[in-house]
Amino acid sequence: MEKILEVNDLHVTFTTYGGTVKAVRGVNFHLNKGETLAIVGESGCGKSVTSNAIMRLIPDPPGKISNGTIHFNGEDLTKIPEKEMRAKRGVDISMIFQDPMTALNPTITIESQLVEGLRQHHHVSRKDARKKALEMMDLVGIPNPRERLKQYPHQFSGGMRQRIVIAIALICEPELLIADEPTTALDVTIQAQILELFDKIQRQTGVSIILITHDLGVVAKIADRIAVMYAGKVIETGTRREIFYNPEHPYTKGLLKSVPRLDLQEDKLTPIDGTPPDLFSPPQGCPFTARCPFAMEVCDKVYPAMTELSDSHKVNCWLQDERAKQLLAETAVK
Ligand code: SF4
Ligand code: MG
């Protein structure tokens, strides 16, 4: 499979009066063409910072990509001039945020907002732009597009507004769409409809998608692969099947226990006790140690290396590492 995006050893820091926050600490993942990768984790785990780094939207200062590479179609986005990056944003790579209202201008018609995005980057006539806008309204499932184009954001429901935001993000036919918590502000039925829409858009346009969410339940239907983040690191990746049916990291298992499941109605939802570590001074060992029911002595001291459980399933946990037994024996002797 052809890779459209490859992130290697990404580090992002923020300098504050209180010290330096290590928000992203050596993140690795890739995205194949035409697939949906979900990046999942609690708030503050670095998932939004990672996506902002891909868009080169980390405010510098106080933020900084302090190390690593982000290859998009073979080109390292961390190295290109801002002018080139600006030409890619909204054109080759588009992003959708949580709150559709802040993404739309309340004083401008939907048509102008759609057309403006297109005409900013491409030389198209008003007529062709309008035709494209109508096509996009149709693609995202807005009824009566001709009349609706003349309306303003407040005349649409929250779910419809998010559909318009998606239409704007897609009008330049980007190859990569990054959606950061795109359904969090919506109620459950609308959430499901928007997720189905992503699925449909991907089938029709072949766009590659990164879906960022704190809710594993959201990705159960549409993610091809899942990367689980914790304390600025990706701690487990796998196909949707591998993560849902064969999770190996205790944190991933904990996340799954906190997701409502239709097939296990009698099961109580169990939140994970404790809080993530302070990223001003992150632990040198496994960051989950303080919350992990299986923590061993080695966990706190040494960060676990990545273990490959299959071609697609990878985990950083000492429980999966053959060397843990040996290290345990050694520490026991001392
Ligand atoms: Fe738990 Fe240790 Fe695995 Fe971390 S490395 S998740 S502390 S068993
Ligand atoms: Mg976020």
UniProtKB/TrEMBL annotation:
Compartments where found: Cell membrane
Domain ABC transporter per the UniProt entry, residue ranges: 5-256
Presence of keyword Protein transport: no
Main location: membrane
Keywords per UniProt: ATP-binding, Cell membrane, Membrane, Nucleotide-binding, Transport
PROSITE patterns: ABC_TRANSPORTER_1, ABC_TRANSPORTER_2
A GO term, aspect molecular function: ATP binding
Membrane disposition: Peripheral membrane protein
Family recorded in the similarity comment: Belongs to the ABC transporter superfamily.
PANTHER family xref list: DIPEPTIDE TRANSPORT ATP-BINDING PROTEIN DPPD, OLIGOPEPTIDE TRANSPORT ATP-BINDING PROTEIN APPD
Name this protein carries in UniProt: Dipeptide ABC transporter ATP-binding subunit DppD
Organism this protein belongs to: Virgibacillus siamensis
Biological classification of the source: Bacteria, Bacillati, Bacillota, Bacilli, Bacillales
